[in-house]
């Protein structure tokens, strides 16, 4: 018969790599426990078997009568056993003894051994084994053993005497033997108790262990860095320390190993992606150096993969609140380990965007951007922003954008707004524009041999061949990617971004993601196709008119609309008057409280709406905005007041006729209507900027300077001109432009535009950020008074008047007398 085939699969090499020390110890313990339990069971079965043999011997079927005397020996033995078990004759009465003898002389059914199924007179059979005879005996039902009673003192009642009994506890001898064996086994297992360490000794021991582990990690890392190709196997040894089992140093050692491996991979990873070898490549013979390089690459990729799997498992254990059976690490320590693991993943995401498993890291990081923990969420968002900023080609950015878009859609747009705010860091300035077939430039192709032979001479063909060879080599040696590939990736990325934005505008208009969407549309509005402008402006106006938006969201809508109109939207015949009206109406919702931060968006909107579109803005509109902005400057924080006054200064230079607001004489008919929300019809020309007088007495010195500067007509020279630190940038820019300097291909400006450029100085937004009071301190700080220290202290006589001096002297010269206080006298007088 063939041996039974073992169906258990042999563990693979990868499975053996994943088998930790904890699993091996648990398997050993389980094996020992099974052996002990098997030993107990075997002893119990042997004990039962011995008892069964004894019972079979004692219950052998022997007939009561044996007339032929065929079994004298066994009969004598049985009689002896009966005599031993029987009571002594001296303890029995004579009548009972005689009765027993008479019964023994008669053979009847009642006096037979009922345990035997054989007849009384049975013929002699062959010798049978004792156990086989025992098996033929019918089994007796297992009955409960008779309970032994203990008689207690009786109780006397009206009805009579009531006997009292109690059951005697039965002690199972088999159970006692088993318990005794277990105790003996436990005594063998228990070792000598370890001496308990004090707190100081424990800390000293932990410090010593930790120092040894650190030295071991440092030695392995140094060996790997010194010669990565030869010592690549030491990466596995270092990674095995991620399963540190010593509970005293387990958490710290694992964190150190995670960070060490992360830095090692950043240093030894090549600048190209390692692909798996084909079967043909594996079968070919290669040199030793190439074989060594291949082994290094394979080992690096495998260890990098296992390392990422370990980091992923740490994050999953923390997210699922999963505690290992080893109890080496507590649940509280899992959070710290997960934070270090996430930080390492973020570093690898940014540092190795070209290497293997980068898409796997993206899939891990993107869901953590929406994590409940604010620290982990911010860490992942910052890593993604950093990746977007440094990604010149756009390949890594496209992968992240795809995953984020799918995640936002899968969560039904219920994610953190910070996820969509990362889109603002994308480095996208140009995209592919659809061109006509005539405008498409065909790619340059090399001439065929037949074309060369027809058109070129022999010498020309020779030169052409050398030229084409050189051009091919230059293309191969070029490190930078082609512009066509870059534009293609940017176009695909921006399409996914706009699809995400438009989905939220259509399906989740009340979502907290709306401000981030509007801000993103404002940034990339110049890249939107002109075909979508009309529909997009209608959607933005509908959102504003709905009244469901906050002041900040409505300001973002206005900003997005004017960004669209300031780029390719100039060619469209669209009247944005409704957006001007909405901004004019929204200005008074800002104040020095929570809405103060909205001033920055207002300053950006005003720059686009009034300054850059100055040719489409009427004088009445400019006057109304300048008047309302001066009123707004009275009830906002100082940095907002500075920004508002700076934008007013720019508007007064952009629209020179607005200086009539500095005169108190009205121009034309009508009365100024400040409560009217239409800037064109509020008659702002019939008012004056009286707010500047109040701002001139402001406690902030910069606000005072700007107010005085505007009251004087915002001159560029003279005593009321701004100081150089507030207008240096504009002056330098004007000087360079006047001398012919033209950075970044700016258009040549006319002579009339140069003074306007000169007066710009620092932008309003820059001033708002520079003088911010977010740190809860005065900005600029209050100047300390530099009073000179006087040698002599001035006496009171020199600065007190005469009457006060006499009163002080009189009180000082009086002798103090201590009189008893009588409060009752004053109390009685007050009651009267």
From TrEMBL:
<keyword id="KW-0175">Coiled coil</keyword>
<feature type="compositionally biased region" description="Basic residues">
    <location>
        <begin position="40"/>
        <end position="51"/>
    </location>
</feature>
<feature type="compositionally biased region" description="Basic and acidic residues">
    <location>
        <begin position="52"/>
        <end position="78"/>
    </location>
</feature>
<dbReference type="Pfam" id="PF07540">
    <property type="entry name" value="NOC3p"/>
</dbReference>
<dbReference type="GO" id="GO:0005730">
    <property type="term" value="C:nucleolus"/>
</dbReference>
<comment type="similarity">
    <text>Belongs to the CBF/MAK21 family.</text>
</comment>
<dbReference type="GO" id="GO:0005739">
    <property type="term" value="C:mitochondrion"/>
</dbReference>
<dbReference type="GO" id="GO:0006270">
    <property type="term" value="P:DNA replication initiation"/>
</dbReference>
<dbReference type="GO" id="GO:0045444">
    <property type="term" value="P:fat cell differentiation"/>
</dbReference>
<dbReference type="InterPro" id="IPR016024">
    <property type="entry name" value="ARM-type_fold"/>
</dbReference>
<dbReference type="InterPro" id="IPR016903">
    <property type="entry name" value="Nucleolar_cplx-assoc_3"/>
</dbReference>
<feature type="coiled-coil region">
    <location>
        <begin position="449"/>
        <end position="487"/>
    </location>
</feature>
<feature type="region of interest" description="Disordered">
    <location>
        <begin position="27"/>
        <end position="93"/>
    </location>
</feature>
<dbReference type="GO" id="GO:0003682">
    <property type="term" value="F:chromatin binding"/>
</dbReference>
<protein>
    <recommendedName>
        <fullName>Nucleolar complex protein 3 homolog</fullName>
    </recommendedName>
</protein>
<dbReference type="InterPro" id="IPR011501">
    <property type="entry name" value="Noc3_N"/>
</dbReference>
<dbReference type="InterPro" id="IPR005612">
    <property type="entry name" value="CCAAT-binding_factor"/>
</dbReference>
<dbReference type="GO" id="GO:0016607">
    <property type="term" value="C:nuclear speck"/>
</dbReference>
<keyword id="KW-0539">Nucleus</keyword>
<feature type="domain" description="Nucleolar complex-associated protein 3 N-terminal">
    <location>
        <begin position="213"/>
        <end position="307"/>
    </location>
</feature>
<dbReference type="Pfam" id="PF03914">
    <property type="entry name" value="CBF"/>
</dbReference>
<feature type="compositionally biased region" description="Acidic residues">
    <location>
        <begin position="79"/>
        <end position="93"/>
    </location>
</feature>
<feature type="domain" description="CCAAT-binding factor">
    <location>
        <begin position="554"/>
        <end position="707"/>
    </location>
</feature>
């Amino acid at each position: 018969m063939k041996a039974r085939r073992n169906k258990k699969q042999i563990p693979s090499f990868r499975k053996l790599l994943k088998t930790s020390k904890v699993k091996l110890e648990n398997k050993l313990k389980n094996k020992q426990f099974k052996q002990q339990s098997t030993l107990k069971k075997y002893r119990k079965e042997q004990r039962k078997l011995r008892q069964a043999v004894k019972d079979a011997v004692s219950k052998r079927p022997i007939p009561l009568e044996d007339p032929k005397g065929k079994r004298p020996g066994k009969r004598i033995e049985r009689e002896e056993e009966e005599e031993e078990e029987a009571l002594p004759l001296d303890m029995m009465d004579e009548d009972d003894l005689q009765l027993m003898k008479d019964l023994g002389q008669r053979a009847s059914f009642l006096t037979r051994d009922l345990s035997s199924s054989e007849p009384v007179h049975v013929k002699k059979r062959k010798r049978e084994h004792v156990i086989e005879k025992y098996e033929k005996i019918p089994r007796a039902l297992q009955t409960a053993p008779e309970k032994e009673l203990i008689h207690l003192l009786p109780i006397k009642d009206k009805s009579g005497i009531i006997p009292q009994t109690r059951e005697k506890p039965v002690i199972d001898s088999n159970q006692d033997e088993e318990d005794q064996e277990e105790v003996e086994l436990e005594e063998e297992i228990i070792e000598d108790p370890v001496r308990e360490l004090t707190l100081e000794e424990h800390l000293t021991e932990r410090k010593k262990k930790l120092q040894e582990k650190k030295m071991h990690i440092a030695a392995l890392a140094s060996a790997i860095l010194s010669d990565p190709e030869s010592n690549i196997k030491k990466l596995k040894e270092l990674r095995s320390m991620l399963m540190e089992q010593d509970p005293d140093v387990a958490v710290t050692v694992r964190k150190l190993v995670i960070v060490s491996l992360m830095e090692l991979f950043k240093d030894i990873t090549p600048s190209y992606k390692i692909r798996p070898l084909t079967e043909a490549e594996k079968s070919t013979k290669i040199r030793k150096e190439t074989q060594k390089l291949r082994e290094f690459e394979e080992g690096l990729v495998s260890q990098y993969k296992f390392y990422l799997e370990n980091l992923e498992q740490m994050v999953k254990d923390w997210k699922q609140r999963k505690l290992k059976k080893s109890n080496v690490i507590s649940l509280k320590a899992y959070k710290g380990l997960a934070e270090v693991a996430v930080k390492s993943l973020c570093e690898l995401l940014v540092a190795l965007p070209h290497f293997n498993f980068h898409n796997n890291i993206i899939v891990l990081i993107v869901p953590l951007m929406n994590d409940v923990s604010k620290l982990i969420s911010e860490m992942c968002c910052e890593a993604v922003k950093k990746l977007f900023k440094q990604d010149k080609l756009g390949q890594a950015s496209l992968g992240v954008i795809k995953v984020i878009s799918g995640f936002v859609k899968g969560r039904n747009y219920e994610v953190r707004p910070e996820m969509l705010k990362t889109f603002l860091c994308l480095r996208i300035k140009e995209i592919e524009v659809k061109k006509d077939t005539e405008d498409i430039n065909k790619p340059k192709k090399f001439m065929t041999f037949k074309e060369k032979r027809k058109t070129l001479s022999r010498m020309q063909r020779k030169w052409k061949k050398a030229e084409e060879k050189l051009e091919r080599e230059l293309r191969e040696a070029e490190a930078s990617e082609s512009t066509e590939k870059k534009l293609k990736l940017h176009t695909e990325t921006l399409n996914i971004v706009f699809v995400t934005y438009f989905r939220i505008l259509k399906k989740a208009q009340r979502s907290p993601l709306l401000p981030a969407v509007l801000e993103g549309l404002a940034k990339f509005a110049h890249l939107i196709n002109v075909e979508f402008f009309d529909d997009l402006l209608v959607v933005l106006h509908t959102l504003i008119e709905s009244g469901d938006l906050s002041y900040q969201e409505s300001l973002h809508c206005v900003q997005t609309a004017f960004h669209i109109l300031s780029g390719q939207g100039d060619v469209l015949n669209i009247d944005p008057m409704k957006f001007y009206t909405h901004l004019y109406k929204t200005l008074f919702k800002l104040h020095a409280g929570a809405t103060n931060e909205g001033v920055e968006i207002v300053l950006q909107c005003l720059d686009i709406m009034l300054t850059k579109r100055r040719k489409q803005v009427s004088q009445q509109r400019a006057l109304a905005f300048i008047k309302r902005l001066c009123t707004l400057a009275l009830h906002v924080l100082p940095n907002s007041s500075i920004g508002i006054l700076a934008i007013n200064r720019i508007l007064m230079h952009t629209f020179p006729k607005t200086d009539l607001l500095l005169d108190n004489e009205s121009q034309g008919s009508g009365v100024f209507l400040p409560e009217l929300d239409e800037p064109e019809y509020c008659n702002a020309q019939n008012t004056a900027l009286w707010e500047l007088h109040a701002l001139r007495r402001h406690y902030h010195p910069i606000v005072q300077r700007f107010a005085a500067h505007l009251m004087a007509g915002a001159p560029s020279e003279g005593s009321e001109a701004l100081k150089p630190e507030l207008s240096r940038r504009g002056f330098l820019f004007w000087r360079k432009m006047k001398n012919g300097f033209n950075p970044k291909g700016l258009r040549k400006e006319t002579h009339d535009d140069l003074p306007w450029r000169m007066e710009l100085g620092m932008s309003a937004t820059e001033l708002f950020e520079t003088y911010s009071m977010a740190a809860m301190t005065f900005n600029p700080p209050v100047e300390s008074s530099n009073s000179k220290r006087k040698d002599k202290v001035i006496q009171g006589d020199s600065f007190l008047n005469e009457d006060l001096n006499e009163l002080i002297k009189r009180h000082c010269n009086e002798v103090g007398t201590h009189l008893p206080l009588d409060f009752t006298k004053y109390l009685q007088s007050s009651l009267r």
